[in-house]
# Entry
Amino acid sequence: MRRTEHTEARNAFMSKVMELPVLDTHTHLIGDSLAARDFWQIAHYFWLLRELQAGGYPADAEKLPLDERIEAFVAAYDETRTTLMNIAFTRIMSELYGVAIHDGDSVRRAIAVVEAAQADAGWAQTVADRMAIRRSVVNYPQHGPFQGMREDAVVMPRIDGEMGKWLAAVEASEDPGGIYRETVSVIDRLLREYADRGYPGVMTTLPHYGVSAKERRTVGPGSSRDVVMMEFLHEVCAAAERHGLLVQLFLGVERSWCGEATPVNDPQRILKLLPLFEVYSCPFELVLASELNNLDAVQAAWNFPNVHIGGMWWFNFRASTYKDSMQYRLEALPASKCSLVVSDARCIEWSYGKIWLIKRLAADFLWERLTQGWIDEGTALRTAEQWLYGSAMKRYHLIR
# Structure
């Protein structure tokens, strides 16, 4: 194939992937404030802000006079042009607002056009349509009604806060076994209520755990926090199985080492959970933030039909980890067991930017596999559709 023909074929393939529908499996969107309230909410999105601060942007930038703040932003933006979030931010500004950031005046234009977009009641839907975002997942029921959009959010209730309360109650009690047994009933009622509301499952993060799910233990005086947590996790899985719910586990971020959340590549993290996957028939979805656990999760999904792999979370959201993880998945698992999209977005504009990145990375990866002869174009596009949309839609009972 001549270079021109190759480029045209690649561009055509990329366009097909970019047009595919998306289900964003984890967001922090709030239904009555989907669009960014101003330019700075986009510019100070946590992931971009971390990179900007590494490039010299002051931690207290919001306290600076506007001109100084803009000057500091432009300098840090220039320093971080190679970083993934800078690239996504640049795409948001250019594609959604028609602004190329290069100096103070361009930032002022961006401030004005973002403000003007606030007057458009259909802006959030417009942004979603530009990236073919069909549905988004939120973790709090009150955030689910999406104002101005055709579809409300999918609600996947977050229970790690409840888990913390259950643990604290057991630890504080003179009768930990009794409190534990009472809480088992609470867990069952809670998950039955979620099932009755039509929610597809529950989501929880997990801190470091020093025990395995393999051996069941009786909770009583002297039971460690890890033991009680793992027993509660057993009860959550049992209740999910009874009520037809999915258990979505977010793993790999720990906060016990310092004041900042940190990715921890624990080689036994997935291993310690394998008995849950073996004992309970409910679906599990593993969402990871630690690079070296990506292969462990794929191995678990290969061994257990009820285990699925979710999108890339926190410190896994990088081009290098995406590429490795997509290779693991492609060669070991049906595409219908894998999802790619976890935007972690706090406004619809960042849903757009991060999903653009994911689509671009998936298209680049699959085009490489295609041109090397490992898969054909039909297989590549079916894989992309499952990774971006179809797999999660079925797993969350949104299609049959």
In short: The mean pLDDT is 96. The first helix runs from residue 3 to 18. Residues 133-395 form a domain with the TIM Barrel fold (CATH 3.20.20.140). DSSP finds 15 helices and nine strands in the chain.
